[in-house]
């Protein structure tokens, strides 16, 4: 009798797995165009990472003065995105609010994808990635409980396991036409609340446990991390829920969306308040430790690269606070989404360059090293984000038809319709993260390019916006030359002079400047952006 039940259950699981595989491998041109786009990014990232493994971390812009960079900045931000699922769990399960309870699973799917991205970002930041297994609970040799990184890996993996268990159980039971087991799901979901808080708290402890880094060595950092996480993470969820409502038959009430926006307003206020308290302490006490905060908000001497980003982040968070606090604007679909984009971008800047770079600058020796992520770092990070959203797409591809009752045991499945729905949701969410990641790095690189342009005295022969030798204006060079051609002019000007027809007549002939690969990348990024308006 028991063996017969086990056999039946095994057949059910087998049909579920086979049907899920058919869902993932099915689809039309739109679906596969999205999957191929992600695959190209993943392949480019894998190639860049292979070069980083072969040549070393010298391909990144990380150096002794700034030993954490683009990877760890994105890791810190994505931990917050993963923790944001709790913003749905608390009103859904603690207060039993049905409008949100019905959509909690999508927050958990996003959390799973975000945690995978986090773990991969840690792996690529390690100079000896074969040692990554040491950080895995059970199989590795964690320096526990002394190492904060061990604690971080433990809570991240545990949070991932909790979310995978809940999602797998709910989806399989829905597929089989049976209600989920509340004795399993409810305790795990409630346990995920302290886990979500824990993953970002321990990540904050990685920073403020470093006594030699006064910019981070503040007890206020952990609540500040949580406040920014509960601001930026729900912004992605809000956009996703609106798309879900339009693209599927899910009944997502306005009240649910408005309530999330209201909760975000409180989190944004707390985030700004905690930042303001820390800024007050630094400026009012006016000790030597205030130098790091001044570098972020004012600059030091001629080093003002980060100042525009600092005030942009503050302005965007203030804008989002106003839009979410006022009932009329948080209930208006246009201003609601403007607020989502503003808080996402503001927190991304603040958690990335606003957290990492000022913490290292000036260095303990007083050196100011201008860090700008290299093409290798951007490619690897974009590949990891693409892999995370490939996973998110696959999960949605399976979850959406199950929750709509279109993919159930013994039922036919209408494939193309659900494919478009899941693709639209995943594509929109993925586009927000990938675009923000690339845009932030590109802006910083272009700003460094302008600095290199001045330092190399390029204005002797060329001008930008009227500054320099106007006979060699470069204001529209990005419309005339491809990035590859601009790069070739920089690294082999004599060769390009011979190739150009008709031959250039300006004297003196352009000569190669002594520049690092990072400086060349920055110049290419800056010049490529000079296009005809």
Main attributes?
about 525 residues, mainly alpha
List the helices and strands and how they pair.
Elements: H1 2-25, H2 29-55, H3 70-83, H4 86-94, H5 98-101, H6 104-125, H7 148-176, H8 182-208, H9 221-247, H10 254-285, H11 291-297, H12 307-325, H13 327-330, H14 333-351, H15 353-360, H16 375-403, H17 415-455, E1 463-464, E2 467-468, H18 477-480, H19 483-491, H20 493-499, H21 517-528
Antiparallel strand pairs: 1-2
Helix pairs in contact: 2-16, 3-6, 3-8, 3-9, 4-8, 6-7, 6-16, 7-8, 8-9, 9-10, 9-14, 9-17, 10-12, 11-15, 12-14, 14-15, 16-17, 17-21, 19-20, 19-21
Short overview:
The protein is mainly α. Helix content is 70%, strand content 1%.
Distance between the termini: 76 Å
Global geometry: globular
Q: Extract low-pLDDT stretches.
A: 412-419
Structural class call reads: mainly alpha
Strand fraction equals under 5%
Q: Can you put this structure into words, describing what you see?
A:
- A hairpin with a 2-residue loop joins strand 1 and strand 2.
- With 533 residues, this protein is an all-alpha fold.
- 41% of the residues are buried.
- It is globular.
- A two-stranded antiparallel ribbon has the order 1-2.
- It is built from 21 helices and 2 strands.
- Helix content is 70%, strand content 1%.
């Amino acid at each position: 009798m028991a063996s017969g039940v086990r056999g039946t259950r095994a057949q059910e699981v087998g049909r579920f797995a086979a049907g899920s595989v058919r869902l993932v491998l099915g689809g039309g041109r739109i679906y596969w165009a999205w999957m191929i786009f992600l695959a190209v990014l993943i392949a480019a990232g894998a190639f860049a990472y292979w070069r980083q493994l072969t040549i070393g971390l010298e391909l990144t812009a990380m150096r002794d003065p700034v030993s954490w960079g683009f990877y760890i900045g994105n890791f810190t931000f994505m931990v917050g995105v993963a923790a944001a699922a709790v913003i749905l769990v608390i009103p859904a399960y603690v207060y039993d609010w049905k409008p949100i309870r019905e959509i909690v699973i999508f927050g958990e799917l996003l959390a799973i994808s975000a945690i995978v991205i986090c773990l991969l970002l840690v792996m690529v930041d390690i100079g000896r990635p074969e040692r990554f297994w040491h950080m895995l609970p059970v199989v590795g040799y964690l320096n526990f409980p002394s190492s904060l990184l061990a604690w971080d890996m433990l809570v991240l993996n545990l949070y991932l396991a909790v979310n995978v268990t809940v999602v797998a159980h709910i989806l399989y039971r829905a597929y089989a036409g049976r209600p989920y087991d509340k004795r399993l799901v409810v305790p795990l979901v409630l346990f995920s609340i302290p886990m979500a808080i824990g993953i970002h708290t321990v990540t904050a402890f990685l920073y403020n446990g470093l006594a030699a880094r006064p910019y981070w060595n503040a007890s206020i950092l952990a609540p500040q991390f949580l406040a920014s996480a509960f601001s930026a993470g729900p912004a992605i969820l809000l956009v996703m829920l609106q798309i879900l409502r339009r693209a599927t038959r899910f009944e997502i009430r306005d009240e649910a969306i408005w309530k999330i926006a209201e909760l975000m307003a409180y989190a944004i206020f707390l985030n700004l308040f905690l930042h303001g308290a820390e800024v007050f302490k630094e400026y009012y006490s006016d000790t030597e430790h205030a130098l790091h905060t001044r570098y972020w908000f004012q600059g030091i001497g001629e080093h003002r690269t980060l100042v525009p980003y600092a005030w942009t982040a503050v302005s965007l968070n203030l804008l989002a606070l106003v839009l979410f606090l006022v009932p009329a604007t948080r209930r208006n679909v246009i201003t609601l989404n403007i607020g989502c984009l503003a808080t996402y971008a503001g927190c991304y800047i603040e958690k990335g360059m606003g957290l990492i770079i000022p913490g290292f600058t000036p260095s303990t020796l007083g050196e100011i090293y201008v860090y700008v992520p290299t093409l290798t770092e951007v490619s690897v990070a974009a590949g990891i984000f693409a892999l995370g959203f490939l996973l998110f797409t696959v999960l949605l591809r399976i979850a959406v038809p199950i929750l709509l009752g279109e993919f159930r045991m013994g039922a036919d499945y209408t494939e193309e319709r659900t494919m478009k729905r899941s693709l639209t949701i995943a594509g929109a969410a993925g586009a927000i993260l990938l675009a923000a990641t690339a845009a932030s790095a590109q802006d910083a690189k272009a700003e460094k390019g302008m600095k290199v342009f001045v330092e190399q005295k390029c204005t002797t022969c060329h001008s930008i916006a009227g500054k320099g030798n106007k006979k060699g204006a470069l204001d529209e060079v990005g419309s005339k030359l491809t990035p590859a051609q601009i790069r070739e002019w920089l690294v082999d000007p004599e060769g390009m002079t011979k190739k150009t027809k008709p031959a250039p007549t300006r004297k003196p002939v352009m000569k190669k400047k002594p520049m690092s690969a990072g400086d060349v990348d920055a110049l290419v990024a800056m010049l490529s952006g000079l296009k005809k308006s």
